[in-house]
Write a structure and sequence with these properties.
The chain has 4 helices and 4 strands, in the order E-H-E-H-E-H-E-H.
Length: 86
């Protein structure tokens, strides 16, 4: 059986709900973790979705379980966060 693609979410606001729902529908993917600059927001999402809450974006990016990142932060942050993920 092929290994599932590990997806992590950055930003745990309202738009993250849409990404979480979409990821849950993908047979070949799994949510491995979430990060938000508000630790409690990340902890809440992680608990609800049985995944890891990262303490920092750098921790998320350095986790070998993360194959892809869904950026759910305000649009002004997308470029910097995307370039870091690349």
């Amino acid at each position: 059986m092929p290994q599932k693609i590990g997806i992590a979410i950055v930003g745990c606001g309202l738009v993250a709900d849409f990404h979480l729902a979409a990821i849950s529908q993908l047979d070949n993917c799994q949510l491995v973790g979430v990060y938000d600059r508000s630790g409690p927001a990340a902890d809440k999402r992680a608990k609800a979705h049985s995944c890891k809450a990262y303490a920092s974006y750098e921790d998320l990016l350095s986790d070998s379980a993360v194959d892809a990142v869904a950026i759910c932060t305000p649009s002004g942050l997308h470029a910097e966060q995307t370039l870091a993920a690349l």
